[in-house]
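Standup notes, protein team

Yesterday: finished cleaning the Zea mays set.
Today: Myosin-2 structure.
Blockers: none.

Input for Myosin-2:
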Amino acid sequence: MEFVDNTNCLSLFEKKHLGLLSLLDEESTFPKASDFSFANKLKRQLSGNSCFKSEKEGTFKICHYAGEVTYDTAGFLEKNRDPLHSESIQLLSSCTCELSKHFASVMVADSQNKSSLSWHSVKDTHKQSVVMEFKAQLFKLMQQLESTTPHFIQCIQPNSKHHPRLFEHDLVLHQLKCCGVFEVVRISRTCYPTRITHQQFAERYRFLLLRSIASQDPLSVSIAVLQKFNIPPEMYQVGYTKLFFRTGQVAALENAKRQMLLGTLHIQTQFRGLHSRRGYQRLKKGAMNLQSFIRGERTRIHFDNLVKRWRAAVLIQKHTRRRLAANMFNDQLNHVILLQSVTRGFLARRKYKCLQNEKESKASHSIVQGNTRKNNSESRICHEMNGHYPHEPVITELQGRITKAEAALRGKEEENVMLKQQLEQYERKWSEYEAKMKCMEEAWKRQLSSLQVIIYVDFFYVCLYV
């Protein structure tokens, strides 16, 4: 498989005695060395490497995996020696802080020890340059990485403007190419990157099988799962303790697992929905029964109240009618009594007058009869004396009685005529009273019927809305 090999670039930096770091450390040991002489040495020693390109005026280029980078040798030797100026040591020794004074004394002691050492010790001190320290730290880091199983996190810069939610596709693609992500993906696809034990695989995908098969040992369960989902044999390898999968096979199993879980969730949702709907229907039916009972009880109570009100209204109407009828009867009775008293008074006065007149007529008649008797006795005596008998006075007396009887009869007839007229007047008044009573009764009936209609309408609306 083809991939970008960075061995030449690494040898350019790390090659023993002829690498860039070794040449920089060697040039730093010469007292008369300069940055220009260091650039010429690099040009002589490294011109044969394809990753090195020499430039003018002490500059050179190195072809890294991400591209060419230009370096300037100005200040390389000074930075590599990393000397500490005497003024800095004097400044630290003059500080009031005890720690700074301790650092200054240690550095002075180190410088004195270096000056008294032999050439071999001086050579060892030169190894403590920046480049040597960097190589030692890098070697230590590589030892730690080789002794562990590290996982790297490669950060990708989304854009060069440092704005959120903005992606520059060319920049991201360039970084992925430079980091070797595509090569890593190709390498992982050609091998078996996914490795899982039989126990873990069986615990994860056991539920996809029948219960009889799922109860077997983990190896049998793993093989049964692979055969059920038709995984090609070239896409996996079965070991003694683990299963090895190529890229994308576990995703297919996870997809099948997700589909199974979705189906299970769908069945659970349907069952729970059915259970909830049945519970809701039961609660709804119970609530409706309770509501109907409460509404019926309230309606019955309201109907009882309406019946009581209707009975009270009927009782009030009855007492009102009785009162009105009693008042009317009392008025009519008073009028009748008044009429009777007037009539009886009139008749009594008339009778009294008749009796008085009769008495007066009797008194005058008795006087006349006395005078007549006296005259008759005298005339009878005379006639007897003369030999005559009294026949004419008897006839006249009878005639007077007849006339009186006729006069009394005419008076009685006139009295009867007057009584008839008064009776007709009383009958007319009574008929008028009866007509008024009928009109009042009809008005009371209409009012009563209207009140009953209003009560029935109110009762109907109450029953309808309650």
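Follow-up from PR in the comments: The two ends are 88 Å apart (CA to CA).
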